[in-house]
Amino acid sequence: MAKTINSVIAALHTLESWGVTHIYGIPGGTINNIMYALNIEQDKIKYIHVRHEEVGALAAVADTKLTGHIGVAFGSAGPGATHLFQGAYDAKADKVPALFIIGQNPQALMNQDFFQEFNEDPWFQDAGVYARTVTTAESLPHVLDEAIRNAFAKNGPAFVTIPNDLANKEIPADGYYSAAANFARPVLSAASDDQVKKALNLIKQAKRPLLYIGTGAKGAASEIMEFAKKFQMPVVTSDLAKEIVPYEFESLLGSAARVASKPANEALKETDLIMFVGSNYPFAEVMFKPSAKFIQVDNNPQMLGKRHKTDVAMLADAKKTLQKFIDTGSSTDPSGWYKSTSKM
Predict the structure, then answer these.
(1) Position 117 pLDDT exceeds 70
(2) Rounded to an integer, what distance in angstroms lies between the CA atom of residue 69 and that of residue 71?
(3) pLDDT tens for each residue of 177-195
(4) Domains assigned to the chain
């Protein structure tokens, strides 16, 4: 006799393969079978009971931001699902992968206006990069796998609605698999020699250059600091990127506009060149000087030239590109501009 496995246990194994170690949520009638499976698998995936689905959704998004692993939260059918919207739009706005699992009534009771039964997929079409309802027990782990791949590939939240009866059926034990081990993102290189040369010429001509970084510069702290010192460019960050560079760094001015620091705001008023790395800063139109020369590095072509008239736009990896500037360019002489903004 062929071996079988409970469909929701198989689904949790899929989540485990993607590095999921805990899930946020509140128990509800339409997700009882998910709760049952979490109890069985609690040595591998911990259940974190929150006071409100909105808290769980926001926590899941924060998880992804802090760890790089996909954060997961769930809500029951109807009201529980709607409470996930706050986290969903947070993930959409910050382009963060997240997975939201939605409970649903058993299939036999769907489409009959049963208690708290809604057609939930259309609700999440705007917020999510993926929103589907599982239709067979066998497809449950596959749909979750598809949702996570879409979330990472498209940098946004994915939603999977699971009829409660489909989360408690036996499926072939060898009938599911995860694509986690095969998933890979495109790897960008550094900017081209010509682009770097053009940007270096602009930096050389500038009197008050500024380096503005966003979350796309994560992992490049050492390059940012070396670049700033070599080219005498103080550093301003977006609010979400404020933890990238150590607070003690001599020329870190903090963030600008909202949740801002006075030095950062003042520097943006005076600068004549901004090097904009890995950010989609929404206040650029009002905070950045229109007359300032603008150099941009981003791994998303949609961002290039979006917030400011751009003189050199580079579709490239931030860390590699900063290092290429450091290796290629000549050091700028010590400047009064850099000294006046420095903590030294």
Answers:
(1) no
(2) 6
(3) 788 888 877 788 999 999 9
(4) 4-182 (3.40.50.970), 193-341 (3.40.50.1220)
